[in-house]
Amino acid sequence: MLISPPFLPVRQANQSEDGWLAAAMICGQPGDGSFPLSFQLGWHGGVHLTAPAGPSGPERVRAVADGTIVYLRAPTARVDDPHHPQNYRGWTDNGCVLVRHESAIGTGANAEQVVFFSLYMHLAQLNPALAAGRRIFRKDEIGQAGQIYGSTQRKIHFEIVCDDVNLRKLTGRTEGAVDRTRDGRTDAVYGSLYFVLPAGTRIFGSQPVPHLTAAHHQPPKPNARAPLPPLVALQPVYTTDRPLIVEMRYAGGAGALADRGDLVVTTCEADGRELAPSLREEDGEYRLFDSAKAIAKAFPAASAPPQTTVFEMLRFGRRVNTVDEAAIPVTLPHWRRIAYPDGAGWVNLNVEAIRKFSDADLPDWCGWTLVDDAADGDSRCDSATVRGWLDRDGDGAVTPEEARAAMGDATVAARLAKAVCKFPSEWNAATIDARWGWLKTASPENPTPLEAADFEELKAHITALCIDAAPLHAAQWHWHPLEFMRQFRRCTWLSVDELTQLLPRRSGPNAAQAASIPWATAQGRMQPYATPLNKTMRKFGMVSRTRQIHFLAQTYIETALWRTMEELGRAHQQRRRNGTMFWPAPAMQYYQAFYGRGAMQLTWAGNYDSYGVYRAFADVAATHRYADERITHTSLHYWADPRDRHGNVTQAARQWFPRYDPNDIATSPFYACDSAGYYWTSKNTGGGQLNINRTADQGVTTDAVGRASVLVNGGGYGFAERQSYAVYVERFLGDAVGTDATRTFTVTYRERNYNVYVDFTPQRPR
Fold it and tell me: What residues does CATH 2.70.70.10 cover in the chain?
């Protein structure tokens, strides 16, 4: 899901995600437009946001995601008449825009075509280009924040709502808490991973042998020539006496530079309270491929699981890609070091009794609660759960004073913020009496009832703000907008349309030579690859926008903007005008049939061989005929460039048969993408350190993009284009608001200057 706040202040250097979101969404306090309640226990479906200060005044209001405008209303001009409905308690602007959004958080019917609505209320001015039924795109300007109840600050009421069907898509359920008797959803998986340990789980003090399910320690050799001593069985140092929850959080490129590839493991009580300080595994994410390969190699050859299976387990704790990955056998342990009440030790997380979840399940132990209070049709909170949070004296009644005190408590405020609440829309003029009639009757939460005349004045004010939008009235599940942002910005799965708009509309070396890719063409290119590309980025850790920018920019040049999964020319000699033949690329005569294929253009037999080992591809049949006729049952091929630094061939060629057909990498969308993720993660970036995410985590700079380009391609081919694509993707995938239509700059690499041209013409349906 590609989503950002309705205000987009400039992100400061080293500002954290939470810090930036808090600066972008300055939420109202209890009693002043907070979510989801007033002190009288009236439901409030959104938050009042104060426009942050910008370089030339308050930041403008912007669309939070791509969508379609369902309804809009230009603001009524301000008047001084104190009896005007909008002058109730001070002037309130009534300009508004309602947008319907459709995105994806995963694959399958319950994770694709996810629909929600965003409402921008109390606008003082609207962008004149807006119109009902017209498409709008993330970061597009909507208008200017206005006044609420005479405030001198520019504010909007902002809310996010969905219906029952899409609540199930967004949360995986429509009521209650997460079902802890079975694993969580696999159609959508993102953010932290959670393991629910039952009582009786055994924890061991020393690190067990990584490929055995029974905990054993391997004593070292007494000397270099001696055989390994026998394994020693380990005894548990702790056995859990109650259920515990283990959270595994890969840094995903976030945090301090030195921590961006770490793994953090936290043990919590069953209700989510932290049990002990978190344990940090330095470079735990960067080293996933190393770890998977080592574990697979530790098994006897006959029973060794594929490296991809081990990687899937280490990354997610279970099989998440149930279509393309093999089941994870119970004989493959998942040993992790976790904290327990009096220390830290090792536990095998790959056992049937341990249930696995992710942030996509919106677990109750993370504070998420579904509250359904829509049955009675009014706007008073009658939820026993919510009232229980506020009832400080436990007498079953909640007074405004109790509500005020409770909402000021940090623990209660956190619970309210993660309550997804179903109640009638406050913007439906036809239901005002049914929703607010209770204000005319005395009750603990409403000790001073409204007189008839006062109620009519309030009703007139509400009517002036209501909107005629049936889709909004039908979508009654309300989210705290800031928490919605925090939650779904963790989900970096991109829909087909979101991926499509990242392909440049116009690109080339300069304005005169720029080529154009229409929307339909771009969408046609991305459609077959959207799901496998997302699966690849999710599995191999391209889960931050920075990593995705780097990865996508490199695939664009490798695939000619996703036009082909084969190296152009297929490594055949070409003829000059004078009739002589030549090889169009360096070393091509040595790799020939093993020319580049896939989204990262695997080249050389050695790279194909390594990927085949990673996936444990079966050998072809004796009768198989390879797609490229240069590969036969007896043909010999070079695993890498066979020449020394003087140009002499010093390496021997080897027989490829009976290995798999390299053409599979080009013809299978999954293998085309998966092989790119494999290459990206297994690439040596220098000093024996694997994983190009290390380079991507340096930021989207010309140096980092240049280094990633060299790691992917090995030289200067397409160097300027790779720089250009990274800048383009950053514009439409990042949160910054750019205004320049084109950009030119120069990058120096290996004492050569590259002139880079970027055309920011947006890729839009036309």
Answer: 17-175+364-488
